[in-house]
Give the backbone structure.
Amino acid sequence: MKKIIHLTINEMDYEIAVEPNKTLADLLRYDLKLTGTKKGCDTGDCGACTVILDGDAVNSCLVLSVQANGCRVETVEGLSTDTGIHPIQKAFVEKGGIQCGYCTPGMIMSTKNLLDKNPNPSEQEIREGISGNLCRCTGYTKIFEAIESLRS
Amino acid sequence: MKEFDIISTRANRIDTPDKATGKAVFVDDISRPGMLYGALLQSPHAHAKILSIDTSKAEQLKGVKAVITAKDAGGIKYGVSPARYDETVFAIDKVRYVGDEIAAVAAESLDIALAAVELIKVEYEILPAVFTIEDAMKDGAPLLHERSPKNLCAEVHQEFGNVEEGLKNSDIIITTKMKNKRQDGAFIEMQGCIAEFDNLGVLTLTSSTQVPHYVQRTVAMVMGMDIGKVRVIKPYVGAGFGIKASANPMELACCFLAKKTKKPVKMNYTRDQVFMLARARHQFSHTLTTGAKKDGTLMALKHECWLDGGAYTSFGIATVYYTGSLLGGPYKLANMSYDGYRVYNNKPACGAQRGHGAVIARAAFEQQLDMIAEKIGMDPLELRIKNMMETGDTTCNDLNMSSFGMSECIEAVRKGSGWDKKKGHMPKGKGIGMACGFFVSGAGYPIYRSDTWHGTVIVKLTEDGGTALVYTASAEIGQGSDTAFAMIAAETLGIPLENVRLASGDTDMGVDLGAYSSRQTLMTGHATKDAAQHAKIQVIEVLAEQLKIPVENMDIRNGFIEFKGEAPDFSELRTRYIKEHRGWIDNPASEKLSFKEASRIAFLERGSIVGTGKYKPHLLGGKFKGAAVGTSPAYGCSAQVAEVTVDMETGQVTIDKITDAHDCGRAINLTSVEGQMQGSVSMGIGETMHEEVIFDKQGRVLNHDLAEYKIVTSMDMPKVEAIVVESDEPNGPYGAKEVGEGAIMPTIPAILNAVYDAAGVRLYELPLTPERVYTAIQEYKEKNKIK
């Protein structure tokens, strides 16, 4: 039995009928075609599916769509604006913090969450801020550099 | 004027704006109208005869469109190396590991497909299984493959020079054993694919692969199709590290499902299926004996290695050769022998992973160099410099170092780490260690025996003259190859990078062997340069005809034509161009003739300007058996210094800093080179510190997720100082060679040597769990009567 939920994704309102066992990650990716959010494990280990839910970074593969009823969701697609890509995205590009790019959307959403709450994070706070996001390509070094360049 | 305009800069990668914004398309981001979803039935047993398969209930489930088994897929064997094909798409007579594929289902939804898989009834006769080299080699052990007595998959015996003589003439002889644990690639994007047939019978397979070309060949061969009727497309790929460097059973099953249903079929591995397929780093057990003179001169190396192979050969035949051949350098060593054995057992097959075959051998050998240095009272860094090969040297197994900035790398890490001030002056519990390594810049020969070109590239100029399109079948899997080739094309054509567009990863675009053995920068890079030169010369030829000046008096740079001496009057050409350009408001006003004008004129004279390029290596290597493996047109090399803290009470090792220098020839993109170095270091740290695939007694992977299989996180990663050492490789495009794999070589031994420096203990087994280090410290204390 599907359930009707209401949620706001990247400032757009949605009314959707969802299966009660559908995860937010699957809803975003397969129903709404917001495929920027990636899935690397489906068990909350890799962080590739990170989105911001009512102001907190979450693994969207561990959130059921029905749990997001009435919530505000931010995904990587919501970051760039008409005037260009978001400063976080720009920093990741310019500092070389992206290789295969599969962890990138989740990594960028965790970064946004970190900087929203703490615009001037220490090195340790940066490491902790993205500690739920696994990257196998970069060795994180250039990701740290990208985030450091965004300190206010 | 500087030598290059684009090469050796820090250009932003061309793929990363899309990756940063979520626009980059990976295979699971794609869906097709009417698409079905596939699922695999995999063996729950490590070794069993299949007595019967009943698919009737699965077929009756509503929404199921096809159920296929070996009956449908046939018995054509495939694998990586044709002489060693030992896999079929689905198990025919028996299953050989937990995960061996038995059947596949296509259905209207993934849930239905999974439910149908549950309904397939298989009757098994359980066979005794073997999970270790020792058990697999025992008399009377069950055989996995009839043609391989004692479960010996492959053996290699090589000797160069005279090892016995070399050891006899040595003052110091050291023998140690070393072993690692089976690794997983742990790329973040699990393998996935979509197969579809068009109405003319052409199969398109879109897949998360490193090697569209080899997948195309394997699919065509197994399905009995012409290569020209199979197109493999690689969308963006969430890395591979070697594991995605051959066709996987899911890709083949997906093609058969698409054929049977006449619908597009999508399949994905789950994370635990990634662990089940494996194909990552083997477990190696090395015994090494190294002899040296009192002055530190290396005399001989005797090397034996056993590889825990798993159920199939996969890349293993190459691995077992690489394990021996890539120990011949980077030191001058006249005498070396190698006995390698790869053994089958009832675990998932191992294959290739970053630093293919050579990483643990390197870890064992570089520890021994430190032990020799200690015995003769020599700085281990000096010992390495003393024995180091130089540009032009050839190893005893015929690998030629056509450029070799090894000494420069050592000096760079000496300075970068403050080695001279730190070595021997650190307090107990703190240590510093170093190691070196080298690696191929592409395999000298393709995996199947052939005279094929290793890469072909097409450069086409758009009709307006403004943009160059580069078409290559190479595989961007995260390493930055697309950007490197766009930079090479731009440099060669003499136009800005933003005027190059590139499309890659499609077998319709040409032949390219793909992303493995660190080959693309050198090989596809050459083909790109060749194609760009071919396009450029056509433009210049037209100018020569039009302006009546010799070809050799012209060049193109920064988007403009450069004339030797005084520029000719090109006003007629400009007028012609402007007439062609009506409606636009950016008419050329420069005093120089632009590339855009010239290539538009060239199009008007000759039609589409298309440059074609190709590359294959020159004849490489010696004449002995296995001489091909390890050959390469060029070798990258590196040195690393690790600084660690060891908690003497708990055995906890913390890596404080890695200083890494790598000779990549001329860096095409400095930022990308550093990224490869830092990524290599992180994978090396993971393998040193915590990575280990663990099995239960039934051959099932216990830690089949990224929580329990521990890769390096942002909390673990130490500071890495990446120092790019540039040399000019004569066999590389613009002097470039590898960085993607060589950079992992020194990481493990540098850490091991640093742990010894800190704690006085040598560890010969990975990973360095606190328990293992603690035990070693306790043994050391007992032996040395330390309280």
Q: What stands out?
A: The two ends of chain A are 48 Å apart (CA to CA).
